[in-house]
Amino acid sequence: MTVPPERTCILSREHGSREGLIRLALAPDGQVLPDIRAKAPGRGAWIGVGRATLDTAIAKGKLKGALSRAFKTADIAIPNDLSAMIADRLQRDFLDRLGLESKAGKLQTGTAKIDTALRSAQVHLLLHASDARPDGVGKLAQAWRVGRDREGSGEGGLALPVPRTILSLALGRENVVHIAVTDPAAAGRVRDALDRWRHFIGPDLTPEPCETASQGASALRAGTGMAADDKDFA
Questions:
Q1: C or N: which end of the chain has fewer Cβ atoms within 10 Å?
Q2: Which backbone phi and psi does 190 adopt, to 5 degrees?
Q3: Beta carbons of 127 and 209 less than 8 angstroms apart
Q4: Distance CA 69, CA 46 (A)
Q5: What is the mean pLDDT of residues 17-40?
Q6: CB atoms < 10 A from the CB of 208, how many?
Q7: pLDDT tens, 222-232?
C-alpha cells in the first residue's frame, strides 16, 4: 500500500498530508498566493494552521520569515488579505467539489428525497445550509438514525458555513437547504474538502454538528423561494 506523501507546516512544524495542508506559491512578481489545489509550478510552502494563527503569524512577521527560508529569498510580498483569499478559495474548492459530485449523480437534494434515502440507509454524508430550520434538521437527523439503526445516538448531519443561497448557486438548483451524498467515495471527497475548509476558518465561523433540532443551525432565513419538496421542513 502506497503511503501518501507528507508535508511539513512551515509555522507549526507539524506533518500532514498534501490534502490536509494548504500550499502557498511564489508568483514571478514575488507575491505569495494560495495554491489550494497544489498545481502551481515552482517552489511551494505548506501551512496547516488555522486562520487566527496565520493572522497572528502575519502580524508578527513570523510568516514572512518562514516563507523567506522556504523560498530561499527575502524578495517576497504577503498580501494583506492572504487569510481571506485562502478562506475564499477553500470555500470555492468545496463548492466545486459539490458541483462535480452533483453532475455525477452522487448526491441528493430535496427534503422528501433525502428523507427516503436516509431511511433506507443510502446516505453516507448529510449536510445542511447554515440557515436550515432546526425542525427540518431534526427530522432528517431522526431519519438518519432510523436508517442506520442508531436511534438515541444523537447522530446527525453537519451544518455548513454557508446559507442556502450559496449552495443553490453552486449546484444550479433552487432552494438547496439539505444535501445527502449517496456514494461512499464521493462522501469521502466532499468531507475532505469540507474538513480542510472548516479547519482553516476555525470554530467561530464553523457551525456545530447538527445532532438534534435544538442544536441545528440558525433559523435566520437567507433565501425567499422554496422548492415544492422542501416546503414542509426546510
A1: N
A2: -65, -45
A3: no
A4: 12
A5: 93
A6: 11
A7: 222 323 333 33
